[in-house]
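FORM 7B: Structural annotation worksheet

SECTION A. Query
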Amino acid sequence: MVPETVCGVPTRHEGDPDRVAVLLPGAAYVPARPLLHFARAVLAHHGWTVQEVWWEPPAGGALAEREAWVVERAREAVEAESAGQVLLVGKSLGTLAAPFAAERGLPAIWLTPLLTMESVSRALRRSEAPTLLVGGAADKSWDGAVARGLGHPYLEVPDADHGMEIFGDPVASAQVLTDVTEAMHRFVAGLRA
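SECTION B. Predicted structure
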């Protein structure tokens, strides 16, 4: 179940009730962190309702259990909506919902997708819905060759790590955030066409 507020701040941001974006965080990357914060801002700018999912993933466990847990959280969040159009935005661990998105034909923005995991890359290969991939060349979970071969638009940032930051360079990291936000803005604008 998604809490209505976290630290007194709403987790749902109302816009068009027929277009809802569900934000799936990472293991330690909550919806208030920059990439997801600006994803929400872009979606709100384009009139979408945004539902943030806040979670505390189970510690340990087999990879298949973690994947099933993420898919179930995504399924619960999507099935709680009655909108005609649902978009998923996932960061890292949240990208384990890619098989669910492919199964349901949901458009998605995957931030630092776990492309080195076969279940994620296989799901992205079969997904026909509009999908944006964002990753950094210095991220061990990103595979640029896989990203280029999937047929989806992508943004690959040289030297960016799994947090989409440039180690030791906060100014360059802020520019990366700008570039990612611009890519999300263009992608979401294209969904209206």
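SECTION C. Observations
The chain has a mean pLDDT of 95. The longest strand covers residues 16-24.

SECTION D. Sign-off
Analyst initials: ____
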